[in-house]
Amino acid sequence: MFIQTESTPNPATLKFLPGQSVLGTGTADFPQADTAGKSPLAKRIFAVEGVNGVFLGTDFVTVTKAESVMWDHIKPAILGAIMEHFQSGQPVIEGEQAESAHAAHDGPDGEIVKQIKELLDTRVRPAVAQDGGDITFHGFDRGIVYLHMQGACAGCPSSTLTLKMGIENLLRHYIPEVVEVRPVAA
């Protein structure tokens, strides 16, 4: 098994490409070790000292490290953990996979929210996945769109620029009711 790595815009996050499917559909975000309970793969990666976050995509694993450690020191152990997992035959996630998706929205702005989600799914999320992350809809209130950033996007120095200059401009262009985009914490 040959695992490729790619840098992301977030210097604390590295994207690992095992050359095979990781999740059939959707994504799974494990921002701390105590959230990895249902994922044998995430647990294995968190066992590497210095790992602060694990994000799983359809064909990639994104790992966020602690500021105090160097990639050169932990990258070999992470590669080993990913390789061991895929050779073990264990599932990536045990039981029902709770697909990371947009939050439900009830209310008078249903048509606007539908348009927002469609633009996120067709224009934003594929591009963000290239960088090892995901952005999902969290809410819409009085013209403000709230988005949840995951994987390499969470804590990325350029994420504010991406939100304001990229996503906000895109949504405002297509949906006049949108006046601002803001990030939310999980």
UniProtKB/TrEMBL annotation:
What family does this belong to? Belongs to the NifU family.
Concerning Pfam families, the annotation shows: Nfu_N, NifU
Which SMART domains would you find in this protein's record?
Nfu_N
Q: Which organism is it from?
A: Albidovulum litorale
Q: Which residues form the Scaffold protein Nfu/NifU N-terminal domain?
A: 3-89
| The organism's place on the tree of life at top rank | Bacteria
Q: InterPro entries annotated for this entry? A: FSCA_dom_sf (IPR034904), Nfu/NifU_N (IPR014824), Nfu/NifU_N_sf (IPR036498), NFU1-like (IPR035433), NIF_FeS_clus_asmbl_NifU_C (IPR001075)
- Protein's name in the database: NifU family protein
